Amino acid sequence: MTIHEPKFRKLFLQWFPINELILCFIALFVFNNYIKHSEQVIRADGLGYYNYLPAIFIYNDLNFEFTDTLQTEFYKHKEANAGILRKVNGKGVNKYFVGTAVMQSPFFLGGHLIAKNSEKYAADGYSEIYQRGIYHAALVWSLIGLLFIRLSLSYLGIHRWWIFWIQAAVFLASSLPNYIVTDASFSHAYSFALVSIWTYLIISFKPEEARKLLWIGLVLGLIVLIRPVNILVILFLPFLLHVSGKKLSDITMYFLNRKMLFLSFVIFGLVISIQVLIWNLQTGQWLVRSYGDESFNFSEPHIIDFLFSYRKGFFIYAPVFFVFLILGIGIWVMKKSWMNIATFILPFLVSVYVLSSWWVWYYGESFGSRVMIDFYPFAILVAVPIYQLKRQILKWLVVPIITCFSYLALVQTYQYKNYILLGDAMHKEAYWTVFLKTDEKYQGYLWQEKFNSNMKKDELLRLTGIPLDVLFSEPLIQNFEVSKLYSRLVVVINGNCSYSNGTNRFMVSIDDSLGTNHRYLEKAIFKSNAKENFSGSFQLPFFFEPLEFNRYTLVCLIYKEEEMNCSEPFEIIVYGLP
């Protein structure tokens, strides 16, 4: 018994998650008392990732026909799944891959078991208990990712105290918190965990542990099953092997054990075949282009925007990684560790090139550079040379930097959740206007487009005193004349209203005197897809391309939502911009 105590003690100290428990406590305190996690975390892209679970376990319908008529607590499913479900061979197909649902499945099944045995929750796959389950899924998998980051750094000889600060940088000073408290159903927390596990398996691999190749194949299969583009992680294989001090003789052992290598490929193939099997069950085809025309444009990458723009720059919304990159590579340069530099920089740049070439390089309505969360385990390894230094001053210098950037990231997570930061259209002026602002008056401030009333313009039409019921019951029709050729026309709606449900959209169309439509725009008072409160004055500008000279047109305005109270009538003004 005594002989085994040191080994047991070593394993206990290695695997007992003291760092992760401390960070979890800090995160939960912040999430529960400051940011507050959303009631509805299954949303947007995340709804697509998640939909497989109720489709398989509740509705037995992989073609998702149940969404045509289903209405649950948080969704009208036909509307919520617009853009998520596509038709292939006349059959419904989810454009997103199934891997995220696989990772969420234990938490879904736990929530479903509770719902079926409780009168409090509807067992429909989408009620509050399922939302809460996915929130906990993202939190737990993120903590598992942190655990394997600790194991990797410990293997590389970093002291547990400094590992804690690196973990804090990943968990608190990045975009990751948002994908726990608000967008927990998105794929990134799960990819982060799997890539962390895969990184540890590679770094800690030893020739005599050939069976570990089976786990490497399994985890890599899950990584690809979540997001196929994440096959890019294999580009970092030389970096992981070199940074862990593997010799050439060690590396060749991967390929000498042909049996285990072959089985590893088999397991990898079996995992990714789950998606192929689902496609076949859905459509009768083995391969489906589920994203349709959405694709990469490799001739027009947005590398600088992807890394440094206020819109979604990786280093703008997670600047701690820029600090790691500069300091870590700087130390490698001083030590002339050219192989470390080359094996990291090349795959990093290739990954950025590929990811920034997606047709929507900013990846839609979201917080920060979300696709880079999947690559955090590699980005933090650049910090290793900082903590391998014998001198302590630089290590201690990084501590207040991580603390400050953690505060910044958590404030911005709060801002995004409360509609202070824009999800897809941030720019320099907007960023600094609301920088670290959390007051209620800033909620929705950037979401309402502002019209510069001082710009040079000709007033073509002014309608005042328009009550709410007129706009809602039927279109408001009014003639006006375009007396000369303008560069643009703008229709401005001013109002003061409050509502507690919906997005309250207005439609403005400009028709000619024969009723032929020439311009059409639709816009929400508050640009949100969720159920949100709004109260106060608003201004909606609708900008139109110029109409032909001297054409008589009609302005039609249709109010789209019902639940709304207005303290004063609307005002509608049509301007011509010279």
Q: Between the first and last Cα atoms, what is the distance in angstroms?
A: 90 Å
* Rg, Cα atoms, Å: 27 Å
Number of domains: 2
The tally of strands reads: 11
The main β sheet shows up as: 5 strands, antiparallel
Strand residue percentage: 5-15%
The count of helical stretches stands at 23
Indicate the percent of residues in helices: 40-55%
Global shape: globular
Structural class: alpha+beta
**Average pLDDT for all residues:** 86
In words, what does this structure look like?
- By secondary structure, the protein is α+β, with helices and mostly antiparallel strands.
- It has two domains: 16-417, no CATH class; 458-577, Viral coat protein p3 (Adenovirus Type 2 Hexon, domain 4, Distorted Sandwich).
- Helices cover 47% and strands 14% of the residues.
- Strands 3, 5, 8, 10 and 11 form a five-stranded antiparallel beta sheet that branches. A four-stranded antiparallel beta sheet has the order 4-9-6-7. Strands 1-2 form a two-stranded antiparallel ribbon.
- A hairpin with a 4-residue loop joins strand 6 (505-512) and strand 7.
- The model is unreliable at 1-5 (pLDDT under 50).
